[in-house]
From TrEMBL:
One of its GO terms (molecular function) is 3-oxoacyl-[acyl-carrier-protein] synthase activity. It comes from Streptomyces finlayi. Keywords: Acyltransferase, Cytoplasm, Transferase. Coiled coil: none annotated. It comes from the Bacteria. It holds the Pfam family ACP_syn_III_C. Residues 345-366 are annotated as: Disordered. This is 3-oxoacyl-ACP synthase. InterPro entries: ACP_syn_III_C, ACP_syn_III_N, Thiolase-like.
């Protein structure tokens, strides 16, 4: 969708906890040596007992502070859209309203957005639609956070495609200008591939209620077994859906991959990054954020915005550059957005609270 009027990112913030190196994970018996080598991952961010909504609040504080340069105040916001890929707190409780209370603290709509890892891009599109349709308010706050340190999750072995990481991100979407203009945003889905993330697991009672862990590898093994027994494989390849979606949104933006300065993608391990994103788009890793994400991991829906904040705050993208934000999630669905940088970061370093990374940092520096 090419935007019918100017919509901007007025502020951006992230919060990342300390890193645990994959070397340490191997030494402690958490992670397999061969899998570590194949993944190319150096570290994953781990937040311990910091609740996910609190990470979203910390990221939002930075995004709101940066957006204040456009004159935005809490009364100018019409909604808060919060994204999560894992449980946020007590059953029957609203994490979006907790984030709202601790940020804008205004009586506006607060809703949780999915699906999964493309949640923030879906929320970005919804925010743009809202601002175009309803001119009574000038901004929407979009947040995302996850903490995979829960007992029911083995972040090191839940999937060979990625290492689950903790952290948060926030973006202020506004009509009043900002540091980047949203040129186009869109998504495509392949509902025939819905089963890939269900893979034989019963719908009721939900697995989490009977002590079932989050294990994508187990589901993948189930599907491979069925295909070996003759069940037809999915008619669509995720990489093809990625390429088709990116081509369409870039065309709507009047752009092309040759004009894109950088791509901010999901924090996959090296093999998945190539097969799902880089190879279908025929681009090299240095166009993306691999050197950064290999020291972070997969922070749910926050990944593209964590990457953008890193590039923008470090000066790796400058005024005039076009950046592609890209994510895929259950469904299967792919979403992307084209933004054009219109202003430099007001501070030299990001406000994301990156604690010391110890052995992970030393390893990254080698």
């Amino acid at each position: 969708m090419k935007l019918a009027e100017d919509i901007h990112l007025a502020g951006l913030g992230t919060w990342l906890p300390q890193a645990t190196s994959t070397e340490e994970a191997v030494n402690r018996g958490w992670y397999d040596t061969a899998v570590r080598k194949a993944s190319g991952m150096r570290a994953v961010r781990t937040a311990g007992e910091v609740p996910a909504p609190d990470m979203a609040v910390r990221a939002a504080e930075t995004a709101l502070r940066r957006s204040a340069a456009t004159g935005l105040e809490p009364d100018d916001f019409g909604a808060l859209l919060h994204c999560a890929t894992y449980h946020q707190g007590p059953d029957g409780w609203s994490a979006p309203h907790y984030v709202l209370r601790n940020t804008l603290d205004r009586p506006v709509t607060a809703a949780q957005i999915g699906p999964g890892c493309l949640g923030m891009l879906a929320a970005l599109e919804l925010a743009a639609h809202r601002l175009i349709a309803d001119r009574s308010k000038d901004a929407v706050l979009v947040t995302s956070a996850d903490n995979f340190s829960a007992p029911g999750v083995d972040r090191w072995n839940a999937s060979k495609l990625f290492l689950l990481a903790d952290g948060g991100a926030a973006a202020v979407v506004s009509r009043r200008g900002g540091f980047a203009r949203l040129v186009a945003v869109g998504s495509s889905s392949a509902p025939s591939m819905e089963e890939l993330h269900r893979a034989g697991e019963q719908l009721f009672p939900p697995g989490i209620t009977v002590g079932r862990s989050l294990n994508f590898e187990e589901r993948s093994a189930h599907m491979r077994g069925r295909w070996e027994q003759g069940t037809a494989a999915p008619p669509v390849h995720l990489g093809d859906l990625v390429a088709e979606t990116v081509d369409r949104v870039l065309e709507e933006a009047g752009s092309s991959l040759e004009k894109v300065a950088r791509i901010c993608h999901t924090g996959y391990a090296e093999g998945a990054l190539h097969s799902i994103y880089l190879d279908p788009l025929d681009v090299e890793p240095d166009l993306g954020t691999w050197e950064f994400t290999r020291g972070v991991g997969h922070v749910g829906a926050a990944d593209p915005f964590i990457g953008l904040e890193r590039l923008w705050s470090s000066g790796e993208v400058v005024v005039g550059d076009e950046v592609l934000l890209l994510a895929a999630g259950p469904g299967l669905e792919v979403a992307c957005a084209v933004v054009q940088i219109t202003a430099d970061c007001p501070d030299e370093s990001p406000d994301s609270a990156e604690a010391p990374v110890d052995s992970a940092r030393k390893e990254e520096d080698r």
